[in-house]
Structures are given as C-alpha cells and as structure tokens.
C-alpha cells in the first residue's frame, strides 16, 4: 500500500532528536512521498537540508497567515518567488491563506494571500491553503481572483469545514485534504465532508507534529507514519478499502503536485528508478 502525506512540518524541533527513526517508520508504513509545507521563507534552507537527507521529500515555500503581521514586508513576494525558482523540488506555494481566529489584521492577511496566489499562478504551481474561521471570505476572495486574474490549482489543507463550505471549494476546483481531525469522535461535520469529496479530489495528510489521529491522539507528537490511520478512517467513511483509498489519494497527490513516484518502494537508495503517476 502506497501513501503520500501531503502536509508535514518535520523541520520542527520536536523531530530533531530522532528524525532517522521517524523516517524509518514512515517508510515501513508505506509512505512513498511527503510534501513539506513552509510557515515562512526563513525555513527554506532547513527544509532543503532535510530533503537532501530524504529523497522522498518535496516541499513548498510561502508565508503562513499567522505570521503575516510580523513577517510580511514589501520584499516578501520577491523572496518567495526567488526561492520557488531556486529548487526543482518546490512543488507548491504555501502554506498561505486566511486565519481569522482572534485576528485583528484581516485585510493584511488578504493582501498577503492574494499576492501568493498571484505568485502561484505566475509559476504554474498549486497553493497550499490554510483556512480557519474564514471560509466565506476565503471563497469570496478566490472567486474574485478567478474572475480578475484567472484560476489557480491547490488544496484546502487540514480541512475542517462543513459540507456546504466543502462544496464552495470543490466548485472552485480545489482538492480537499483531511488530517487526523477526521478521526476525532466529535468531528461529525468533517466526517460528512469527507464522504462527499469526489474521489479524484481527495487528499490525506498528518499536519505533523500537530493533530495526532485516533488511535494515537494522546501522543504529544504526530508523525508521517500516522497518515495510515487517516487513510483507514476516511476509507471506512467512504465505504472503500484502505488500499483503494491509499492508491486514489496517492494518484491525486502526484497529479496535483506533479510528484514523481518510485517504481520500487525501497526508498533508501536515491538512485532508484522513478516515474510519474
């Protein structure tokens, strides 16, 4: 069974003591690709260094909405553009988006998000979108951008919206990615959303080190190998086998992020043969 974790943060300090063991476990679990999100451009060199160690890792560059207040400057778009062009392993812009939970800088977030959408369109890359307490303004902004500048592909990551909100972003052409939240007992609206996403638009992720899924929810650190539990739970919700769910989401991730996929699943040798999904 092949799996792709489409959203990780393994550059965080929580992983530094045992990252080789973490990688061994994700490989043992069948995780053949990971997409490393980026909170701010200053992380880029560190993420590159991790990708040098683990050839199954691809990554994004962008600025998270919660960091916009402190880190969005006039030169930030040019810096993101430069970094995105600097490495062929960059497969997305992000994570970017809107987080209106306790936010006092909503307009500033919108400016930063729209600027990163424009960069993604310029580069022909998808966007990784963070959306918290902002589904309606997010959908409105995207519809306006589509009308004025054109469409951009992307994913609503760690999705926790209602089925109605899910439909908004499906209509805009986005993929929807589910994290460990979908395994939580009280996450009924997320589970209903997971049932309605078309098979060719469905993705899975851990968002590690956050949001460990059931049956690992009590652990302080989530990790990429746990994406198997997300896959198993979403498969049950959709009444398909875990193998079918894994293969469908792997194909979807390859298509969205243009990821090469190994012809063999022994990921240790960097010289393995590659193909595209």
Can you describe what's shown?
The protein has 277 residues and is of the alpha/beta class. The chain contains ten helices and ten strands. An eight-stranded parallel sheet has the order 1-2-3-4-5-6-7-8. It has a two-stranded antiparallel sheet with strand order 9-10. Strand 5, helix 6 and strand 6 form a beta-alpha-beta unit.
Q: What would you call the shape?
A: globular
Largest sheet: 8 strands, parallel
Low-confidence parts, pLDDT < 50 over ≥5 residues?
Answer: 263-274
Computed structural class:
alpha/beta
Helices, by number, come to: 10
Instruction: Please provide the count of β strands.
Output: 10
What is the average of the pLDDT values? 94
Features:
single chain; 277 residues; alpha/beta; eight-stranded parallel sheet; two-stranded antiparallel ribbon; globular
Briefly, what is this?
By secondary structure, the chain is an alpha/beta fold. The protein is built from ten helices and ten strands.
Question: What's the topology here?
Answer:
Blueprint: E1 3-8, H1 19-28, E2 31-36, H2 44-53, E3 57-61, H3 68-71, H4 76-86, E4 90-99, H5 106-123, E5 127-132, H6 135-148, E6 154-156, H7 163-171, E7 175-178, H8 188-196, E8 202-204, H9 227-238, H10 242-257, E9 260-262, E10 274-276
Parallel strand pairs: 1-2, 2-3, 3-4, 4-5, 5-6, 6-7, 7-8
Antiparallel strand pairs: 9-10
């Amino acid at each position: 069974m092949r799996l792709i974790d489409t959203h990780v943060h393994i550059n965080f300090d929580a992983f530094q003591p045992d990252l080789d063991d973490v990688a061994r476990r994700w490989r043992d679990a069948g995780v053949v690709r990971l997409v490393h999100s980026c909170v701010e451009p200053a992380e880029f060199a560190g993420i590159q260094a991790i990708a040098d160690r683990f050839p199954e890792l691809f990554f994004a560059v962008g600025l998270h909405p919660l960091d916009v207040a402190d880190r969005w400057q006039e030169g930030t778009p040019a810096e993101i553009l430069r970094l995105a062009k600097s490495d062929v392993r960059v497969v997305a812009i992000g994570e970017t988006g809107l987080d209106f939970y306790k936010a006092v800088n909503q307009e500033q977030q919108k400016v930063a998000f729209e600027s990163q959408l424009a960069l993604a369109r310029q580069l022909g890359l998808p966007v990784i979108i963070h959306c918290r307490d902002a589904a309606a303004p997010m959908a409105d902004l995207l519809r306006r951008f589509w009308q004025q500048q054109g469409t951009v592909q992307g994913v609503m990551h760690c999705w926790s919206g209602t089925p109605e909100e899910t439909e908004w972003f499906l209509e805009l052409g986005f993929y929807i990615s589910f994290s460990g939240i979908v395994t939580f007992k009280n996450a009924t609206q997320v589970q209903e959303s997971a049932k309605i996403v078309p098979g060719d638009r469905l993705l899975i992720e851990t968002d590690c080190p956050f949001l460990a899924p059931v049956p690992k929810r009590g652990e302080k650190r989530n990790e990429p190998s746990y994406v198997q539990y997300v896959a198993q739970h979403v498969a049950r919700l959709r009444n398909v086998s875990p193998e079918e769910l894994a293969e469908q989401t792997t194909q979807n991730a390859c298509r969205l992020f243009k990821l090469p996929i190994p012809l063999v699943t022994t990921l240790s040798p960097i010289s393995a043969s590659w193909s595209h999904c």
